[in-house]
Structures are given as C-alpha cells and as structure tokens.
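Here is one such protein, fold included:

. . .
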Amino acid sequence: MSHQSTAPEQEPKRSAASWFRGLRPVSKFRVVLLAVAILVAPFAIYLGLDEPSQANVGECMAGQSVNDLRTVECTDPAATWRVLDRLDDKTETDYDNGACGAHPDTAASFYQDGRRFRKGFILCLGAVKE
C-alpha cells in the first residue's frame, strides 16, 4: 500500500499594494500612522525638539526627574526651577566635575549628551523664588 502525496498548491504571492487594498479602513489608517511615526521620529530626535534642549537662561522649568523636566512659564504654579546658566559644548566629565560651581544658588543640574558626535549641555537650575 503506497500513499501518494501531492505538493500543496502555493498561492501566488500578493504584492504590497494588493495587501494594503485588502485591509479595512481602520487598519489602513493604523498602517499609515505607523509609517509616518517611523519617518518623523528620527528627525524630531535629531533636531532636539525635547524641552530641556530648548531651555535658556532665565526661563523656568517643572519636573523632578530627567524624564519629566519641561519648560513652563515662570508664573505657572508647577514652576520649580529657574535656569541660572546653560553651559554648551560640555561632556559628561565636565558635568561630574561640578560645572555649576560658579553659581552658588544652584540647587540641581541637568546634563544631556549631544547628538551624534557632538558634545552636550548642562543646565544649572536654581529654585524658583516665590
């Protein structure tokens, strides 16, 4: 008794366009949204659009950790810090060596490393006076 086996018929490969056309509208929206996010995110990161990188001397900030530090109006009740100094072109070693020592009112400091082969910056932060 011998069994004959036949190879399963292979379905023709679908192109990306036909795959996309077969999706429901909600799924199409999600795919497009994901594609846009993947394309835009690197540019946003590269340009340094995060809040601490935009802070200047005299501006106020709120937040207690690196992840939630953001620029706010100095009249905002959430304002905790005032930027006393911004030291550009600094390394992490500069930060560790007390770069804000020239500002005796410094209560905290923030270091962000540079983007792609660049040095970072240090923010010397003092408490907002009420």
The longest helix spans residues 25-46. Residues 94 and 122 are 9 Å apart (CA to CA). Helices lie at 16-21, 25-46, 51-54, 92-96. The chain has a mean pLDDT of 79.
